[in-house]
Amino acid sequence: MALPIASCGLRLDDEAIRVAVALRLGLNLCVPHVCRCGSPVDAWGLHALVCKHAPGRTTRHQALNDIIARAFASAGIPAMKEPTGLTLGDGRRPDGLTLIPWQHGKPLTWDVTVATTLADSYISATASSAGAAAEMAATRKMAKYADLPASYTFQPVALDTLGPINTSAMDFLVDLGRRIAIVSGEDREGLFLFQRLSVTLQRYNSVMVHDSFVREDDPDL
């Protein structure tokens, strides 16, 4: 339902649309080949979406986190990415922190993650419940930051590769979009925020499929 408005970050190129449609409909996505990591990639391209050697994994995470951080800025809420000093003993850092209270007098800290809907570890759950991969990923994030001081509110933002977002993040994003709309006067801010996240995710699905192909000039090989 996103209009291809480039200024809002909502425009996909033809290849990203091709990959998004193929993934959604279960169509062949590429010629079977060997990934840069040495693993086989089937015609559906599924390994490309879970490969830990794909350069696009890091840039995808940064792009999604940037969208959240910019949304706070648009709402007039100062925030910082990768804050330090939250008294987590092993050096863990969430992806961001508001510098003023968000709710109940507490600043909000968030962490973004992406789960692959069709990965072997999720497929049995996602086959019976849409969004199950995102919910499972969000639960793991909650456990990871369970020792965060009670003076912070922690919000996992978990997306899966076919689009769903975990339920608590949906509520958080609706609230954030409402706050942006108060500042901008544009009632569709919340809708645009959801669409930016979704379109960015689909864009990087295409990037990661292309990451799996080996090029003769690849400096990492």
Concise account of the structure shown:
The chain contains seven helices and six strands; from the N terminus they run H-E-E-H-H-E-E-E-H-H-E-H-H. The mean pLDDT is 90.
Low-confidence stretches: none
| Oligomeric category | single chain
What top-tier CATH class of the domain at 58-205 fits best? Alpha Beta
Q: How would you sum up the global shape?
A: globular
What is the CATH topology assignment of the domain at 58-205? Trna Endonuclease, Chain: A, domain 1
Instruction: Please tally the helical runs, counting DSSP H or I stretches of 4 or more residues.
Output: 7
- Averaged pLDDT, please? 90
Cα radius of gyration in angstroms: 18 Å
Describe this structure in words.
By secondary structure, the protein is an alpha+beta fold. It has a domain at 58-205: Trna Endonuclease, Chain: A, domain 1 (3-Layer(aba) Sandwich). Helix content is 43%, strand content 12%. It has seven helices and six strands. It has helices at residues 14-25, 46-50, 56-74, 123-126, 132-144, 167-184, 189-211, and strands at residues 33-34, 40-41, 79-81, 96-98, 108-115, 153-160. The chain has a four-stranded mixed sheet, with helices on both faces. The protein has a two-stranded antiparallel sheet with strand order 1-2. Strand 1 (33-34) and strand 2 form a beta hairpin. The protein is globular, with a radius of gyration of 18 Å. The mean pLDDT is 90.
